Amino acid sequence: MSKGTTYIPFYDFSPSLNAGYLKQILPLLVSHNVAANPINYAIWYDYVAGGNPALTKAVNLLLEEHKSFDCDNSVELYRSHICNASLESFEHINKQLHKAIEQATSAINDTYNKAEETNDSFQKKSVILENSTISDGLKIIFQEIIQETKSLAMTSQAMQAKLTEANHEMEQLRTELAEVRQIATTDGLTGLLNRRAFDMTLVEIIDQSQPDTACLTMLDIDHFKRVNDTYGHTVGDNVIKYVASLMRKHAEDHHHVARYGGEELAIIMPNTSQEKAIQISENIRNAMEASRLQRKNDNQSLGTITLSIGVARLQVGDNPESFIVRADNALYKAKQSGRNRVIHS
Ligand SMILES: Nc1nc2c(ncn2[C@@H]2O[C@H](COP(=O)(O)OP(=O)(O)OP(=O)(O)O)[C@@H](O)[C@H]2O)c(=O)[nH]1
Asked: Where is the GGDEF domain (predicted)?
């Protein structure tokens, strides 16, 4: 069982016990119509194993309310009761630690500076005292105080060095997290945003935009199956990469070009009128139609490959789903009406 919500769930039961859980979990997944994916398995594993009362309560509540274990509910259960590790949570922890180290460094700096100042002033006064007529006992006490402040200054200096090192490590970690984020949001084939990043960006842009000021363009390569079947999957991959490069070239700097899935690509266009979105889409479509692609190894022509494109503009009350549906419907119309064209909703 995972021990409550952690960053990494921990399971330490024996194989035979796990086999027993498996036998109980499968019928539960079937009877509650739950998809047997790893997230759901983890939820029902904890449910069967017991020992995670908050999760058991949350699952029972969903059952009582006859709610489905759809993707949203499952991810919510998993994040709230089993594992809340995410790039965002690691980045949050990193930021908090960085802040704490900065505060500690600043406090240590103050201590060091004060100790140095006090030390300086004591040093000056000790010269005066050396020549004064105060008793030797007092002179010894004074020397001891000077030693103490010196050692405080040295300790502060050593702590300062350690904190600077810790800060450096945190910065390195932050760079690594940024690299992981980059990998997690990038499509491996095209280098465009992947579907996860597309979904997140679309939510943000809808949140930030007024109706009519943003557009969504969905693009699909025509008869792509034929390309794969005739020239092979590797050539197909290269065609997708080529289309991605055309999209990057024609989209504006503030646009978000993404691979929506398979041979379907998309551009989220904030601060862009529908006319502008159509014009950019036409430029991409024209450029593709005019391209003379050849197979690398034998220069065999791939013939003309075309694109169908659907454009939608953001409307009042839109959410990501409705926005995508409108762009997708326009794309579908482009396909239905003969392909190699741009249609807006
Ligand atoms: N090479 C390659 N092919 C892919 C990739 N993803 C999806 N496909 C292929 O894309 C093709 C999509 O075919 P369909 O959806 O039937 O449509 P189509 O042939 O493009 O025809 P229309 O969309 O109707 O013009 C399928 O053959 C998929 O296997 C990929 O990453 N690489």
From this structure: 212-345
For ligand 1, say whether the CB of 187 is within 6 Å of any of its atoms.
no
- Six token digits for residue 123: 């040093």
Residue 329: burial class (beta carbons within 10 Å; 0-12, 13-18, 19+): middle
- Give the global pTM: 0.65
Predicted confidence (pLDDT) per residue in 56-95, tens digit: 999 999 999 988 888 888 988 988 888 766 666 677 777 7
Pocket flag, ligand 1, residue 230 (CB < 6 Å):
no
CB 208 within 8 A of CB 318: no
Torsion of CA 26, 32, 34, 36, to 10 degrees: 0
- Main-chain phi, psi angles of 264, to 5 degrees: -105, 125
- Going from the Cα of 229 to the center of ligand 1, the distance in angstroms, rounded, reads 10
Helices (H), 186-273: 195-208, 224-231, 233-250
For ligand 1, mutation pick of 220, 223, 224 (most atoms within 8 Å of CB): 224
